[in-house]
C-alpha cells in the first residue's frame, strides 16, 4: 500500500450494500483508494476465509484482511488490520508487508507503533451511526494521536465531505470511509467529491 497525502481507505460492511458485494468492491478497487479493509466482523473464520478468496479475486491488490491471521497466512496474503488486542499476540510480524491497528487512545497508538504497525486508524472522530450513542473523540484527540506517532494515522468515524478537510488539518495522513462507500451509487464519483472537498 502506497501512503500519500489525502489518502482514503475503504472499510467494508457487506450488510450496507444494495448491490452484489464483490461487484461493489471491484468498483471501489478501480478508484484511487489506497486500501480496502475487509472487516466483516460477524463472520466465523471459516466464513471469512471463503469470502476473502472471492474478494481477493475481484480486488486483491487493494484488499487488507481483518483480524484473522491464520486466514491471511493460509491464503499467503501479507496485508492485515487488527484490533490492538490481537496485535499484541501477533507472531512473526515480518511476514506482513502491511500491518494496521485500530486505536482508540494515545496509549494504544504508541503501543501499536512499538509493535510494528505500518499505519493505524484513530477514532471514532465524529459522531456516526456506526457507533450510536457514543460521542466522537474529536479533532483534538486526532491531533494528539498524530503527534504521538511517526507512522501514518487514518481518521475513522463520521468522515464526510463537510469535515474531511478538518481531519487533514489535524495531521492525519488519510481517512477511512465505510457507510458512504458501501451505499453510494458511484464510488468513483464519491471519492472525487471527498478529494474535491479537501482542495
Quick rundown:
With 199 residues, the protein is an alpha/beta fold. It is built from 9 helices and 8 strands.
Silhouette: globular
Strand order of the largest sheet: 1-2-3-4-5-6-7-8
- Percent helix, as a range, is 25-40%
Report the sheet with the most strands, covering strand number, pairing sense and barrel closure.
Answer: 8 strands, parallel, barrel
Quote the distance from N terminus to C terminus: 23 Å
Q: What is the arithmetic mean of pLDDT?
A: 94
CATH fold-level assignment: TIM Barrel
In terms of DSSP E residues, the strand content is 15-25%
Strand runs, count:
8
* Unreliable residue runs: none
Q: What is the H/E string?
A: EHEHEHEHEHEHEHEHH
Describe this structure in words.
With 199 residues, the chain is α/β, with parallel strands linked by helices. It has a single domain, classed as Alpha-Beta Barrel (TIM Barrel). Helices cover 39% and strands 19% of the residues. It has an eight-stranded parallel beta barrel, surrounded by four helices. The two termini are 23 Å apart. The mean pLDDT is 94.
Labels describing this entry:
19% strand, single chain, 8-stranded parallel barrel, TIM Barrel, 39% helix, alpha/beta, 8 strands, 9 helices, 199 residues
Amino acid at each position: 500500500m502506497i501512503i500519500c497525502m489525502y489518502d482514503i481507505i475503504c472499510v467494508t460492511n457487506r450488510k450496507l450494500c444494495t448491490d452484489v458485494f464483490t461487484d461493489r468492491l471491484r468498483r471501489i478497487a478501480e478508484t484511487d483508494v489506497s486500501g480496502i479493509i475487509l472487516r466483516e466482523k460477524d463472520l466465523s473464520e471459516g466464513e471469512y476465509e471463503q469470502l476473502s478468496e472471492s474478494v481477493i479475486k475481484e480486488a486483491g491488490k487493494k484488499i487488507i484482511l481483518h483480524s484473522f491471521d491464520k486466514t491471511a497466512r493460509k491464503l499467503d496474503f501479507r496485508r492485515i488490520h487488527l484490533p490492538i488486542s490481537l496485535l499484541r499476540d501477533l507472531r512473526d510480524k515480518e511476514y506482513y508487508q502491511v500491518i494496521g491497528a485500530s486505536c482508540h487512545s494515545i496509549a494504544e497508538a504508541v503501543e501499536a507503533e512499538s509493535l510494528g504497525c505500518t499505519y493505524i486508524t484513530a477514532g471514532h472522530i465524529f459522531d456516526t451511526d456506526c457507533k450510536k450513542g457514543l460521542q466522537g473523540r474529536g479533532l483534538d484527540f486526532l491531533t494528539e494521536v498524530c503527534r504521538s506517532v511517526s507512522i501514518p494515522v487514518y481518521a475513522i468515524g463520521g468522515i464526510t465531505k463537510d469535515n474531511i478537510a478538518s481531519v487533514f488539518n489535524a495531521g492525519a495522513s488519510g481517512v477511512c470511509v465505510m457507510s458512504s462507500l458501501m451505499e453510494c451509487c458511484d464510488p468513483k464519483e464519491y471519492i472525487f467529491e471527498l478529494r474535491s472537498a479537501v482542495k
